[in-house]
Structures are given as C-alpha cells and as structure tokens.
C-alpha cells in the first residue's frame, strides 16, 4: 500500500515510507537545531528512505567531524543506516558553502537491502541514487534530484556553477535544459536495466505544467503527487 501526501500517521510493518525534502542548506556547524530536528523526525515518523536536496555544502572542504556521514552517525545507528550525498566536485573556490547538492539516506530494515549508490555522471550533485534488492529479483532504484533555478546572475548559484562546468566542456546549453536531457538519458538506461525507478526532488518548475508532464510521460514515469517537493 502506498500513501501519497504529507500525512505521517501510524505506519504498518509492511509499508515503505519514503520522503523527499529540500533542506534549504545545512549549517556548516554541526548540531544546528534544524539538523537535530531532521534526524529526530526520521526516528519519530519511521522514515525508511529520505531523499534530500539543497544540502548546500562543499563536503570536500569540510573537516571529518563535519562530514555528512559523521553528522548522521551522531543520531542514527550506523549498523542500520546507509547514506550518500553528492555535490559539485569541480568547484575549486575553496569555500565550505556550495549551492545545490543532493543526498539519500535509508534507515532501519530497508538499509540491509541496499545494493549500490551513485550520482549524476557529470558529478555536479544534480542527483544521487541508491538501489535496493526486493523480492523475486526486483531492484528498486530511488533518485533524489535537484534542478538549478533559472539564472539570477549570482556567481555562486547552482546554475552558475553548472554553467562554468559546461562551458569548460565546450557545451553551450542552458544548465536547466542539460539537466533534464541528462536525467532522461539515465532514467531510460535504468529502466532498460530492469530497475523499478522512483524519482523525487525539486525541479524548480511547476510540475503540473505541460513541459514537466510531457517529460515524464515520454519516459513512462507517472507523477504521483504534487507539491514543491514531489514524488514522481
């Protein structure tokens, strides 16, 4: 049984509770109140898989104690937790804050079925995926996506970071268009591999509009819920 919406009522033992959440940038310092509330909510509401967007940190420039995995292990048992996050690894500015980024966290029983994880081929942090082994050989791939907002002129926006990378590749496409094209290519490959695919995240566009509807319809992917952060 699947419940589509924001309701966090009692969870049956055979349910999988998957949540997509835009964090709107984690603090550089650990144990910030919103971060504490995040991990408390995972335990309180029995969240099995959490899709995260806009973590907002350049993990390569943070100390070990401030890494995402270290933050997770302060609250959740590492023996039954699997997690991965992705950011723009091409950014050499040396700053600790970085717009964008994605991540996935699985907790409790479902974590023991985790098979593998990865990120977008460009390594810009546009999406993070994890695969889970199911019954009868079924494989579920969940994907957390963050599509940059339209250009606002700022040098440190996710759009600007992606534009710098694509310019270096002699690719003059708009990063938002490139994002959708690359995502479509990967979704098609995952489906051809036989995976069941769930995509959730923040596309920074009205998903009830014709462009997004047509995009996912062309891939055979059904939009299950509307909202700022959606399950697709």
Q: What do these coordinates show?
A:
24% of the residues lie in helices and 22% in strands. It has 232 residues and is of the alpha+beta class. The protein has one domain (18-231): Endonuclease/exonuclease/phosphatase (Deoxyribonuclease I, Chain A). The strands form 2 sheets. Strands 5-6-7-8-9 form a 5-stranded mixed sheet, covered by helices on one side. A 4-stranded mixed sheet has the order 1-2-4-3. The protein has 5 helices and 9 strands, in the order βαβαβββββααβαβ. A hairpin with a 7-residue loop joins β5 and β6.
Set down the secondary structure blueprint.
Blueprint: E1 18-22, H1 33-44, E2 49-53, H2 68-73, E3 81-86, E4 102-107, E5 114-119, E6 127-133, E7 139-146, H3 158-168, H4 175-192, E8 196-202, H5 210-218, E9 230-231
Parallel strand pairs: 1-2, 7-8
Antiparallel strand pairs: 2-4, 3-4, 5-6, 6-7, 8-9
Short description, anyone?
This protein is an alpha+beta fold and 232 residues long. It has helices spanning 33-44, 68-73, 158-168, 175-192, 210-218, and strands at 18-22, 49-53, 81-86, 102-107, 114-119, 127-133, 139-146, 196-202, 230-231.
């Amino acid at each position: 049984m699947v419940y589509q919406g924001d309701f966090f009522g009692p969870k049956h033992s055979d349910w999988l509770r998957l949540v997509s959440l835009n964090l709107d940038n984690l603090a550089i310092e650990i144990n910030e109140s919103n971060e504490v509330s995040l991990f408390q909510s995972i335990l309180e509401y029995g969240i099995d898989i959490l899709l995260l967007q806009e973590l907002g940190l350049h993990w390569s420039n943070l100390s070990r104690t401030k890494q995402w995995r270290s933050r997770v292990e302060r609250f959740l048992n590492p023996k039954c937790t699997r997690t991965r996050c992705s950011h723009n690894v091409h950014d050499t500015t040396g700053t600790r804050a970085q717009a964008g980024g994605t991540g996935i966290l699985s907790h409790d029983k479902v974590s023991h079925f985790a098979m593998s994880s990865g990120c977008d081929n460009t390594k810009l942090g546009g999406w993070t995926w994890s695969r889970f082994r199911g019954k009868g050989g079924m494989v579920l791939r969940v994907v957390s996506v963050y599509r940059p907002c339209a250009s606002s002129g700022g040098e440190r926006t996710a759009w600007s970071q992606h534009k710098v990378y694509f310019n270096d590749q002699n690719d003059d496409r708009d990063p938002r268009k490139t994002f959708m094209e690359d995502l479509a290519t990967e979704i098609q490959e995952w489906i051809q591999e036989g995976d069941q695919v769930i995509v959730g995240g923040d596309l920074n566009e009205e998903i009830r509009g014709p462009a997004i509807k047509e995009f996912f319809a062309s891939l055979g992917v059904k939009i299950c819920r509307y909202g700022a952060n959606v399950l697709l």
